[in-house]
Q: What sequence folds into this?
């Protein structure tokens, strides 16, 4: 495979990994401290920074997953146009655009003061009850719209895969290479797990926004479980890569053996 295809195909994956790591380097240690002390002790500034980085991670993840889906859709379903659409220069611009939109999507939280400490989850996070209209907007723009785009892209890819395997298309139709299908399958699983992990929390937020009285009726354990289920998703992507992608397994093994030899 040409080098530029490797670069353009993996750019969004690397960007997604950065989004997953954001919660680990700053917010999670503060959350662990809050759990240990049974309250937030880091102060309001750290609370705002922690909430901002958590939001950056979440929105960055879904926007990058959307970028991956569009990239795979163009590569498999519109292969003749792919080289032009996803040149190295264009891909860098797309990744920058993804993060610019991510930051832009987070900024309104400061104006509506929705980043607050929630003792139920020991975290400074988005408060769903601050504004019903804003919560609905967040769920629609940050979850429903991206999920709809990704679903459309992967649905079209699956249709093409089925047609190619059944030879519905003419023989002149480009075949889908095994490694391309494996890469597509890996990112499809990443998308499905993201949707499954984040759907409960978003559904709760949407329900509370539409019917505020439901906020008191929703059990605390359900909200807490949905919250930690959502953020646990950041830990799953590395496992998925290792299970479904031979290259990732090979690199994991090389890194682990290298660390083991270094320690010995």
A:
């Amino acid at each position: 495979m040409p080098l530029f295809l490797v670069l353009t195909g993996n750019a969004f994956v690397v960007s997604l990994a950065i989004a997953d790591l954001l919660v680990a380097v700053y917010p999670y240690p503060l959350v662990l401290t809050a759990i240990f002390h049974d309250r937030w002790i880091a102060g309001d500034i750290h609370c705002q920074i922690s909430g901002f980085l958590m939001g950056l991670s979440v929105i960055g993840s879904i926007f990058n997953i959307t970028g991956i889906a569009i990239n795979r859709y163009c590569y498999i379903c519109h292969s003749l146009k792919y080289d032009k659409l996803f040149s190295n220069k264009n891909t860098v611009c797309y990744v920058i655009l993804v993060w610019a939109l991510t930051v832009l999507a987070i900024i309104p939280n400061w104006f509506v003061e929705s980043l607050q400490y929630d003792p139920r989850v020991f975290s400074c996070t988005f408060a769903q009850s601050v504004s019903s209209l804003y919560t609905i907007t967040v769920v629609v723009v940050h979850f429903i719209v991206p999920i709809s785009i990704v679903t459309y892209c992967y649905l079209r890819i699956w249709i093409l895969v089925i047609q190619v395997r059944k030879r519905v298309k003419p023989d002149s139709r480009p075949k889908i290479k095994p490694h391309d299908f494996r890469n597509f399958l890996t990112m499809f699983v990443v998308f499905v797990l993201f949707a499954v992990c984040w759907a409960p929390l978003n559904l709760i937020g949407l329900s509370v926004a539409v019917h505020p009285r439901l906020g008191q009726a929703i059990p605390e354990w359900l909200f807490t479980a949905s919250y930690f289920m959502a953020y646990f998703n950041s830990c799953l992507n590395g496992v998925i890569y290792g299970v479904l992608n031979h290259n990732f397994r090979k690199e994991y093994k090389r890194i682990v053996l290298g660390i083991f030899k270094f320690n010995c």
